[in-house]
Design a protein that fits this description.
CATH topology of the largest domain: Fructose-1,6-Bisphosphatase, Chain A, domain 1
Number of helices: 7
CATH architecture of the largest domain: 2-Layer Sandwich
Organism: Pseudonocardia yunnanensis
Distance between the termini: 50 Å
Protein name: Inositol monophosphatase family protein
Helix content: 25-40%
Pfam family, one: Inositol_P
Shape: globular
InterPro entries: CysQ/Inositol_MonoPase (IPR050725), Inositol_monophosphatase-like (IPR000760)
Radius of gyration: 17 Å
Order of helices and strands: HHEEHEEEEHEHEEHEEEH
Length: about 260
Amino acid sequence: MRHDPGTATSQDHRDATEIATAAGEMLLDLQVDLLGANRRQDELQLIADRSANDLILQQLAVRHPDDPVLSEEEEDPTSRLASRRVWIVDPLDGTREFAEGRDDWGVNVALVVDGVPVVGAVAVPGVGDTLSTSHPPGLPTRAPWPLIVVSRTRPPVFAAVMAEQLRAELRSLGSAAAKTAAVVTGEADIYIHAGGMHEWDSAAPVALATACGLHASRMDGSALRFNQPEPLLPDLLICRPELADEVLGVVREALD
C-alpha cells in the first residue's frame, strides 16, 4: 500500500493493531507448547523471537512494501535513514519473561514518521488485549497514591529514593510493553527506565502513551527522537501528565 511518506493513515493504526495482536496470540500458543515440551530456555527464546519476527515482517511486507522496517531480530536497514516512514518493531519484548512462563512480555509494533512515533500497538496477550493508537483509551482514574513500575533486571539506582520522595509504591515488571500497559490502564502511574534500551523497546509504547494523553520523554525531560543512526535510547519516562514535573524534579535531585 502506498502512502504520502509524511503521513500516517487510519489503516496504519489498524494494521499495527492487527499485526501485534496476531503475533501476540501466536506467541501465547507457542509459549504453552514450548514450555510443555520442556525445551531449554535459550531454545525457547530463539524459536519465539524468530517466529514472531517472521510473522510481523511478512505482514508488513504485504501491507507496506515501500516502508523500511527496523526490527530487533533483523540487520539494521540503512535505507530507513532516508525514509520519512519507518516501522519499528520488537517481535517479542520480554524474551526472558516469555521463556520463564511469565505473562509480562509483549509485542511492540510502531510506525515512526519524521522521527516521531505516531502509530503504535502494544500487545500483552498474557494479561489483556492489545492497546493501540487505533482506539487509544483516555486517562484512567488516578489511584490514591502513585505506583511506579521499573525493570525486573535493571531498575534505576534511584528508584527507591524516588518512591520514598513521591510516597509511592514500587513494583517491578518485565517488558516495556507490560510496564507501559500498566500506566495506560491505570494500574500504575509512572514508568521510568534508566538502564539503556533500543528504539524497538520504546517506539510503540511512546506512540501509545502520547496518544492516551500521557507524558513521555527522556529522564531529563527532553523529547524522544526515533529513527536515529544509532537506534539507542539511554532512558525513558512515561507517566501521568500531572506528575511529570514532580517526577522530573526528583530525578534531577537524585542525579545531582
